[in-house]
Each structure stands twice: as structure tokens, then as C-alpha cells.
Known about the structure:
The chain is mainly beta. The chain has 3 helices and 13 strands.
Amino acid sequence: MSNAGGNPHSRRLSTAFRMTKDDCYQVGHITKTHGVSGELVLFLDVDNPSEYADLESVLLEVKGELIPYFIESIAIVKGSRAIIAFEDIDTIEQAERLINCGAFLPLEELEPITDETRFYFHEIVGYQVVDANEGELGIVRGVYAMNAQDLIAMDYQGKEVLIPINSDIVRTIDRATQKLNVALPDGLLAIYMEDDSKQKPEIDGDTAELSPDDTDED
């Protein structure tokens, strides 16, 4: 693997200070090392992993800071996984320090969506949820990206209500008024209004900040 010349971390740090998570969306995370020469496995939590086959750099969240890492090679394998080699990461010891680091790209690289039935998870945070029967309900606080079912987290009367993301429930998005139009299943709100001692649906996944590139395409 080649050395970029000079201090290999200087251009990473100078760029990182200009970029925060508010400026970015998460495309995945490093899961493990690959081989003994510094290569890593990057899980791409996106709709079309093949679109990321020509990445030249990525921002990794290291100890809470986004640091650019420049890519020497990347190969998409097994659907959502990529074998990736970074400049200046030449040993398994260096690579191990990056395991579990989130991978981000600037928001400005995302193509805008104009379809009112599709959206990026990150863009609906702060939107007003409007039910077809109940009217305005609450504000979107985040999205849990899960293997089985992605869920919108809505703040409703001081409680967190989880709304499954599918085309039958989440109907359209109005970007002009920042409203998300839904048709909630009967009884969904009542579940969350019951006594807190009763069991709520379990959450085992990441929020949209970890994987915001997904869209509702059901």
C-alpha cells in the first residue's frame, strides 16, 4: 500500500475538522479485518451497494471524530459487504483499531429525491407526523434501521411511539411543509398510552444517524 507522502494524517485531520455528522450520512460500518495486510470488511447499509464500488475516500468515526480515510482499493462482495484497503493502513494491528467505526459520506453527495413516496431516513427527522384519521400527532425524532423492520420514532404526548415503515402505513412526504402523512393501524397509539409497566416492542437496531441512506421503497 502506498504512502501519500509527508505526514499521512495531516490532510485527514485538516479535512475532518470541517465535517461533522450533521453534514454527513452514514453508509455503513467496519465489521472486521480481512487478511493480515490491513484490509477490512465494510458493511454497506444502503439500498444499492454497487453504487459505492468507486469510492475514493470515506469518513470514519474514530473516538467521536470524523476522519477522512483514502481508499486504495475496494471490492463489493456478498451483497452488502466490501473488502476495503485504506492508504497507510498496512498491518492487521492498524486495521483492528478501525473495527466498529461508522463510515460516513457528505450529504452533498446524495442525489435529491423528488418522489413523494420515498425519502432518506435522515431527512424526515423533525417532520410532523399527520395521520389520515387523527390528524397531527407528533414529531419524528429518529429512525431505527433494523434487519426485520425499519421504524420511525415519533414523540407523541411525551412518549416514544414506533411506526413501521412500509407503504401501507407511511404514505407520502410533503417536503414543502415538512409533514409525513401516515395511516396508522388501529390501536397502535393505544399500545403506547397504556401503563409504562406493560411491555413495549423491543428495539434492537441503529438509528438513522447510523444508516440514513436507506429509503422507503415498499
